[in-house]
Design a protein that fits this description.
This is NUDIX hydrolase. By secondary structure, the protein is of the alpha+beta class. Helices cover 16% and strands 39% of the residues. Helix 2 crosses helix 3.
Length: 231
C-alpha cells in the first residue's frame, strides 16, 4: 500500500526503511544550502554563536543564529545487577539539579570519542569498563545548535585504580546513584527525569534489548560522520 511505512527486520538488522510507492529512504543525509554571508558575534570559552545568511529554496535569504559546539560523549554504564550509574549535577541554564549519565565535551578536535568517553567515566565516577559499544548518536538541538553527541554503552564495570580526579565548579558536589533500568524507564515516562542523554540512552537500551540484543550494537569505534575522528 502506497505511503505505508515498512520495516525490513528488527533493530539492528534493518539498515533502511522505505515508504512504499515513494521510493524514499528514511535516513539522515548530508546537505548544505548556500551561505551568502557569515559572522561570529560571540565567542565563549568552549562554544560560540554564529549567524549565517542562508539561501532558502524559493531564493530568499534568511538569517540563522546557532551555537557552534565541539560535540560531546556520554556513557550509559550498566553494572552486573542491571543498574545504570547516575550522577546528579547542578545545571545553571535550567536552574535544576539533574540526574544524568557521565558525559563531557570533545575538547580536542578530531579526538577519538571512545577515549573521551573512557576519560569522562573515570573522571566523573572513578569507574572503568571492559566492554564498550555505541548505543546511539544524536543532535541535541539541531534547530539552534550543531552539538552532536555519541552515547556509549559500557559494561563489565569495576572501580578505577589510582586517586580520584580532582573536580571543580559544578562537579564539586556531585551525587551518585545506581538505579535499575526498569525504574529509570518509569521515571522517564513519568516526567521525573529530563537530561537528554539519560532519557535517550535508557530508552535506546531497552529498544536494543527487544531488537537484536546488546551484542549486536555497533562497535565502539564505529564511524561517526557528525564528528570524524582518528581510530
Amino acid at each position: 500500500m502506497a505511503g505505508v511505512h515498512t520495516f525490513n527486520g528488527a533493530h539492528p538488522g534493518f539498515s533502511q526503511v522505505r515508504l512504499e510507492g515513494l521510493g524514499m529512504t528514511i535516513k539522515d543525509t548530508p546537505e548544505e544550502w548556500e551561505i551568502r554571508a557569515t559572522e561570529t558575534p560571540f565567542v565563549g570559552n568552549k562554544t560560540s554563536v554564529r549567524t549565517d545568511e542562508v539561501v532558502m529554496p524559493d531564493g530568499s535569504v534568511a538569517r540563522r543564529d546557532y551555537q557552534v559546539h565541539p560535540g560531546s560523549v556520554a556513557v550509559l554504564a550498566l553494572d552486573g545487577e542491571d543498574r545504570v550509574l547516575l550522577i546528579r549535577q547542578y545545571r545553571h541554564p535550567v536552574r535544576q539539579k539533574l540526574w544524568e549519565i557521565p558525559a563531557g565535551l570533545l575538547d580536542i578536535p578530531g579526538e577519538n570519542p571512545l577515549h573521551a568517553a573512557q576519560r569522562e567515566l573515570y573522571e566523573e565516577a572513578h569507574v572503568k569498563a571492559e566492554d564498550w559499544r555505541v548505543l546511539t548518536d544524536l543532535y541535541t538541538t539541531p534547530g539552534g545548535c550543531d552539538e552532536a553527541v555519541r552515547i556509549f554503552l559500557a559494561r563489565d564495570l569495576s572501580e578505577a585504580e589510582g586517586e580520584r580526579f580532582e573536580t571543580e565548579h559544578e562537579e564539586i558536589d556531585l551525587e551518585y546513584a545506581r538505579v535499575p533500568v526498569d525504574e529509570l524507564v518509569r521515571l522517564v515516562l513519568a516526567g521525573d527525569l529530563h537530561n537528554n542523554c539519560l532519557v535517550t540512552g535508557v530508552l535506546s537500551l531497552v529498544a536494543a534489548r527487544t531488537g537484536g540484543g546488546l551484542d549486536a550494537l555497533r562497535p565502539a569505534d564505529a564511524p561517526w560522520p557528525a564528528r570524524p575522528f582518528a581510530v
